[in-house]
Structure prediction request, 431 residues.
Amino acid sequence: MLSHTNKGTSLPRSPLLSNHSQLQRGMDLTFNVFSKFLATFMLLGYLTACGGGSATANTQTPAPPTPLSVASALFAEKALSASGQLACASCHTDDNAHADATGTTLPIGGVNMDQQGFRSSPSLLYLASNTAFRFDANGLPFGGFTWDGRANSRAEQTAGPLLDSTEMANADVAAVARKVRGLSYFNDFVSQFNVPAAATDQQIFEKLQTALQAYQELDTDYLLFNSKFDKVADGTATFTAAEQRGLAIFNNPNQGNCASCHTSRNGPNGERPVFTNFSYAALGLPRNPLIQKNADPTFFDMGLCGPKRTDLSARTDLCGQFKVPTLRNIELTAPYFHNASVSTLNDAVGFYATRDIDPGRWYPTVNGTVQKFNDLPVAYRNNVLNTTPFGQQAGAAPLLSAQNVADLVSFLKTLTDDRTAPQGSPTVVAR
Prediction:
């Protein structure tokens, strides 16, 4: 769970609707799908207990709770926020690969739902192979959760939004624990997550973190592996000419060079790629004027070196670096990048193609000078990545033509999961 936002008229899907839609996919009755079926009827039981169901529904006996059914209810639970209007599912929506809902630009939260965040809500999918934050043998940062990797697990990650004053805005752990104890399904939470008798506030909070992590581990949506890309790898589909060209550009180190960060090759035992190596990069993105914090010219979001992450604040060589996200389902997760500065997938790819050869397309011009990399202090602009396809001089011939950009977008759309189909194997099917 990362940041949360007011969706306006785009309401989050409830676990009841989410689980019902999953049943409609015709998936095999694996353990996870059966658990979702149970979750639906357990949640129906909660609704009817509160007078929300019909007389017929009230005569039904709710199915026994499961870890998935309870965890999915918690993921969609707005009562866990100070405003009573935000849940994990408010931002990380089913229809958008568990990222921000369509039409969302930047998160809105807080006690009165009037506090804007300054980072977009990334997809929560395909993080199972991620690790705790670390530096490799070459001193390069990898792993961790959130845009700046400050959480070392999904469970640890959940504490951020629960306690952040601009998100779910709980004053402290005790405030969260009170809300959990007040849930109509608290006893199910206790039984399914082994909450101790007379548990302390801290124990309640930690078990909540465990449950929210369990939801992401048990729900099959988080590792569907059934996109067109996966079907092509299994030999049950073929790329169009444009998609095939896009894949070649994606993998070409002298052209797109995308695979240098967004790994596209199978693992040694046939593990399907998740299209990120969980590294970090400073892309030199344009400053987003829609971020209220950016009205202050002295404010900069610099990722690994602050302001949300504080332990690396002295590592000025890391300023401007943010987590490389998965590209799976990238078609569904607009707007793009950590600061939501690019609205469409075509423009996101176009940024890589033209950032340096046509900087005026992306950055403001002041007194005749393009203010390149204007979302970083001048002192840290040398941190910006200049490897291919970046690094060219303004006006140079593009490494990626408009046709190349279109082909790349065509390929990227093959990474979109089919939410109406069964979960695929995490390894490539042997032919």
